[in-house]
Amino acid sequence: MLTVDYDKLGLRSGHHLLDLGCGFGRHAFEALRRGAHVTACDMAIPELEEVLKIAGVIYEDGEVPEGTTATVANGDATKLPFADGSFDRVIASEVMEHVPNDADALAELTRVLKPGGVIAITVPTFLPERICWALNDAYHAPKSVGGHVRIYTKAELRAKYELAGLMPGEVHQEHGIHSPYWWLKCAVGIDNDDHPLVAAYHKLLVWDITDAPKATRIADRILSPIIGKSMVMYAAKPLTTRIGEPVHAAA
Fold first, then answer.
1. Could you tell me if 16 and 87 are in contact, meaning their C-beta atoms sit under 8 angstroms apart?
2. Domains in the chain, please, with CATH?
3. Which of 17, 141, 197, 225 suits 10 as a labelling partner, its CA being 20 to 30 A distant?
4. CB under 8 Å to 20, separation ≥6 — which residues?
5. What angle do CA 102, 111, 236 make, to 5 degrees?
């Protein structure tokens, strides 16, 4: 289940991509299949070990173009272990809402992005997230250790991009059928996965992810612009220019 649109990201074969907060690698694996050299970065060692394991499987299955590389790195979003301008593209999916100092994290992401490069950040969409916070305070920090520490508006994320020296671009919402699932979990108890309604809805989401039936795909397309669980915003890092010249992003 991808949140970032790789066509909007402009990912090309041969690009070097950083997947920050990679989790179990859903975005990293798709980038590998498209021929990008991927660095999957996370603070959790077990997730990185799993990413390496699955990457090995898709290599063996011939799903990755020859010569494409996959690397994992253990790192903190506010102190990335990479040189300036290391990556053509950066993805930070469902990460920034967990970081207390998101300005430092965004500054680091901007630093490691090449001039002309493009970044995609995904965060929980304001309205669905606000409902979750209202329904159950165990959903977010401080009760949820390591949980969400803020709710972003579109205007706030755009402003933070600009403060970091980036040029904000296209925005879209994804995963419309996922928001009611989280509202339900918040209503009956975050850890109450055995609740009949929660269990039934979870089966529906698994069916959607594994089989992509037409009914759920249509429902998701209709609901995503309204109550999509995730907001995705793209931005470009300006190219270095001489005084008096216009600033352009790479195509």
1. yes
2. 6-125+135-174+229-236 (3.40.50.150)
3. 225
4. 41, 42, 77, 80, 90, 91, 92, 95, 109
5. 85
Per-residue model confidence as pLDDT tens for the chain (251 residues): 899 999 999 999 999 999 999 999 999 999 999 999 999 999 999 999 999 999 999 999 999 999 999 999 999 999 999 999 999 999 999 999 999 999 999 999 999 999 999 999 999 999 999 999 999 999 999 999 889 999 999 999 999 999 999 999 999 999 999 999 999 999 999 999 999 999 999 999 999 999 999 999 999 999 999 999 999 999 999 986 443 344 444 43
Beta bridge partners of residue 122, listed in sequence order? 93, 232
pTM (two decimals): 0.92
Cβ atoms of 27 and 4 closer than 8 Å? yes
